[in-house]
Amino acid sequence: MIRRPRRNRQTEVLRNLVQETTLSVNDFIFPLFVIEGQNQRVEVASMPGISRFSIDTLQEEIASCVDLGIKAFAPFPSIPERLKDKYATESHNPDGLYANAIREIKRNFPEVVLFTDVAMDPYSSDGHDGIVENDEILNDESLEVLGKMALAQAQAGADVVAPSDMMDGRIGHIRRVLDEHGYQKVGIMSYAAKYASAFYGPFRDALSSAPKKGDKKTYQMDPANSREALVEAELDIAEGADSLMVKPALAYLDIIKALRERSNLPIAAYNVSGEYAMVKAAAERGWIDGEKAMLESLLSIKRAGADIILTYFAKEFAQSLKK
Ligand code: PBG
């Protein structure tokens, strides 16, 4: 044998030299759940290690992440039922839970970068990402709400708004609204290829945001499709997106790779709640090594071509580096 690939794997130093992909704390955005009240820190039952924080305790959580080198965050609000309505009015309340959380984080940690969520579902009494009329999810009418929401977030201090709703034309509409109000510097990370996935279950528990009726298949993508992701990405690029996201990540590594090959924009991947919960549940039972499975999952997402990874593992990853 002349060729022996095992020669390069003989020692750890050799293996490190030939390693093609590495992970660092700079790769991650850490999602955070915000709830009303004071001194609250409530663990999400289906996401061990992840809690919902009131605005005050959230500052402590962010401080501990910043100490570990995690400096990019994606907060999501949990809105009480009494504030939800058909038009998600609370979503653009300049004094609501979300705007207050954004302002408080930027006041305490001006250097952190906040990716804020633009979508109606946490505020919608129908639990959908658009206005519901006779069981139909209206597109253009919903854009109006998304524009107001993005503007309220920019005014509160968001660095990048991240529309996760999958309405057509939202990137262009939000870009126009932001620019008209002088927020040219606020970026847009588009959830370009967001699939109608079963892996969002724990997230919907955390925010009580599940659809009251029906599913999200008329706006989120069919898991059977990949070319459709390219169409979505092309449109979002043309409409002014600054980065493109694929969601979920692990079951869609081919989509991450396809977007990486076709676009020069930064590609983000969302390692979603169900993907996190699966690793945690199996590790709790002693069926897999949780830390190794975490590192392998994150590496595979990066290897597929993601520059940025949104993951509930971000803090744990940073802690594992310190060990
Ligand atoms: C909704 C939204 C969802 C997630 C982020 N934004 C769920 C959904 O579409 O129902 C899921 C994130 C996760 O599962 O971690 N706008």
From TrEMBL:
Residues holding Mg(2+): 232
Q: Which Pfam families match?
A: ALAD (PF00490)
Which residues carry out catalysis? Answer: 194 (schiff-base intermediate with substrate), 247 (schiff-base intermediate with substrate)
Catalytic activities = 2 5-aminolevulinate = porphobilinogen + 2 H2O + H(+)
Q: Which InterPro entries match?
A: ALAD (IPR001731), ALAD_AS (IPR030656), Aldolase_TIM (IPR013785)
What terms describe the molecular function in GO for this protein?
A: porphobilinogen synthase activity; zinc ion binding
- Recite the UniProt keywords alphabetically: Heme biosynthesis, Lyase, Magnesium, Metal-binding, Porphyrin biosynthesis
Per the UniProt record, which EC number(s) apply here?
A: 4.2.1.24
Which EC class is this protein assigned? lyase
Q: Which SMART domains match?
A: ALAD
Q: Which family does it belong to?
A: Belongs to the ALAD family.
Identification of the protein by name: Delta-aminolevulinic acid dehydratase
Species whose genome carries this gene: Pontibacter actiniarum
